Each structure stands twice: as C-alpha cells, then as structure tokens.
Amino acid sequence: MFYVIVALQPLILMLENVPIIGDLLNWLESAISVDGWIDSGYQFISERSFFEKFFGLIIFAIIVLLGIFSLIKKLSKLIIVIAIIIGLWLLYTNMS
C-alpha cells in the first residue's frame, strides 16, 4: 500500500531546515494537536456499541455520497462554463 505521508517525509524533513518554514511547521505542530484529536476520536468511537457504530457509518456514508454528488454537479457546471468561455474566445480571436 502507498502511504502519502511516507512519500512526502523527505520533503517535510527538507523543509524543516528552511529557517522560516521550519519555524512555521514547528509552531503549527505545537498549536494544533492532531494526535490528540485522533486519539480522542478513536476512543469516542471505540466506546460505542455495534449498532451505534453501524448507524454512524451509514449516516457518514450518506453524507459523503451526497457531498460527492454535489461536487460532481458543481464541477460539471464549471466545466461547461469554461468550455463556453474558451469557445467564445476561440470564435472571436479567429474572426479577425
């Protein structure tokens, strides 16, 4: 399996040596405790019963699917608008 974090680790380690970016990364790491959030989220979910986990998974899947459909709708509209703009640009640049 391909892990993005493992692939980007040399780049992140390289950026830590850059004076401004390294300080910014260290500040972000101390200001935002992502590990604590992940641990508390895992602990919250692991304390739930099977039915609560099952219904939570169904609700999460519905939310993700609706979000994907909404994103596809918006992207398709954006692609149509961009195609019309490019078509008009090509039409008016080739008329002269």
Walk me through this protein's architecture.
The relative contact order is 0.04. The radius of gyration is 23 Å and the shape is flat. The chain has a domain at 50-96. The protein contains four helices and no strands. It is mainly α and 96 residues long.
Count helical runs: 4
Structural class label: mainly alpha
Strand content: under 5%
Report the oligomer: single chain
As a whole number of angstroms, the C-alpha radius of gyration is: 23 Å
Reconstruct the topology from this structure.
Blueprint: H1 4-16, H2 19-31, H3 34-46, H4 50-93
Provide a brief overview of the structure.
This protein is an all-alpha fold and 96 residues long. It has helices at residues 4-16, 19-31, 34-46, 50-93.
Structure characteristics:
96 residues; 86% helix; mainly alpha; single chain
